Amino acid sequence: MKKVKYRHSVARILSLSVSFFLTFNALVYAQDSPLAEDESVVQETVQGAQESNVEAEAGSGDAAAGKEIFNTLCAACHKLDSKSIGPALRGVTETRDTEWLHSWIRNSSALIAQGDEQAVEIYNEYNQVAMPPFPQLSDADIDNILAYVSQPKAVPQAQQAGAEAAGGAASGGGGISTDILLVILAFVLAMLLVILFLVNRTLRRFAAASGVELPVSPKRKPIWKAFVENQFLVLVSAVVLVLIGTYFLYGYFMQVGVDQGYQPIQPIHFSHRIHAGDNQIECKFCHSSARVSKTSGIPSLNVCMNCHKSISEVAPETATDEYSKEFYDGEIAKLYDAVGWDVSQQAYTGETEPVKWIRIHNLPDFAYFNHSQHVEVGGIACQTCHGPVQEMEIMYQNAPLTMGWCVNCHRETNVRTAGNEYYEKVHEELSKKYGVEELTVSQIGGIECGKCHY
């Protein structure tokens, strides 16, 4: 018998691979030391002690109760970290005497009238806008407010997470990198492929040395040639392809002019989720012309400034994984640039820039639609056509706005007749004709051509 070369090489490679894999596992699990948990406990203990010291330094007030009072009475004119109608208040207890702050909050006008230097200086600095008195606040209430404004500024979660990650990497006790794991797994798989190749080659050599003939697969006809020779399969396939092509071609032509799902990026990011959802601002507060005209209109930037004159930044909890607090604050800054609002001076500069909003919903010129007829007379909610606007971060076209979509709505929607004498008279006559209790829009002529095309 002929000697086979490297017959024992497969066993050696397998043994080496298993040994390497077991050693690697031992190293990985050895790095998962319980010291990391102990360090996190120590860190939490230290942070808790630091927070306790901060609260102790802030005074005996309740910061949580002070935040509630601040948001109710003070937030309209003051911010913690930036100027507004009044000065920024974070850390005010470090620059002003507590007793003086009590007198100022209760009745600032009295201090100004008495000629108090600090009171007069603040009054003149902020355009001589007098702060309203708050005689209803007790000493405890004011202490709570001062405790709230004395708290240190919170570190954003993204920065805190980045700092913790950097600290873990620097300490060297955070485990092994995922990339390294993937590289090692890829190496193990490559080793297995090499082993399989060597085993296959060794077996073939062994068979050749033993005089064993390996089976040879018979030559088969190519599948495409067999398919072409079968006329029935060719006919059926052609019919199926024609039907599928016709279906998709019809669907493509039916979508011409339909912009459902259109979602352009606006020059200033406006979150309907925050305004209509979180803050529950009514749609018609901004789109006021929807009550009385054909179009809903684009709100003037002055409407935005009714609120954002005092709101130059969003609350930290408003941020999401996709949009940070810094992003939203930057968009508010774009609004200020457009209207020419100087935050530091709390005044308009007169230098304005036009905002080129991108239209989303646009009916063709031959189709007539009146917002006031639907919103005011019909009592149709904005979400019926525009979708869940209160959940949209970026506004998009929810409905197809096709003729068939409008006609179906007119066939299914009942006419609101309450408080409308004209419709009450029409309803009385047509309800006898159709024998129904309520009339749909189509039953009063809502699907006639001239209703929308004239």
TrEMBL record:
Gene Ontology terms for molecular function: electron transfer activity; heme binding; metal ion binding
Signal peptide positions are: 1-30
InterPro entries reported in the protein's UniProt record: Cyt_c-like_dom, Cyt_c-like_dom_sf, Multihaem_cyt_sf
Please state what the protein is called: Quinol:cytochrome c oxidoreductase pentaheme cytochrome subunit
Domain Cytochrome c, residue spans: 61-153
Per UniProt, the keywords (alphabetical) are:
Heme, Iron, Membrane, Metal-binding, Signal, Transmembrane, Transmembrane helix
Domain of life of the source: Bacteria
**Taxonomic lineage:** Bacteria, Pseudomonadati, Bacteroidota, Flavobacteriia, Flavobacteriales
**Does this UniProt record's set of keywords contain Transmembrane?**
yes
Any transmembrane segments, and where?
Answer: 180-199, 232-253
PROSITE patterns recorded for this chain? Answer: CYTC (PS51007)
Q: Which residues form a coiled coil?
A: none
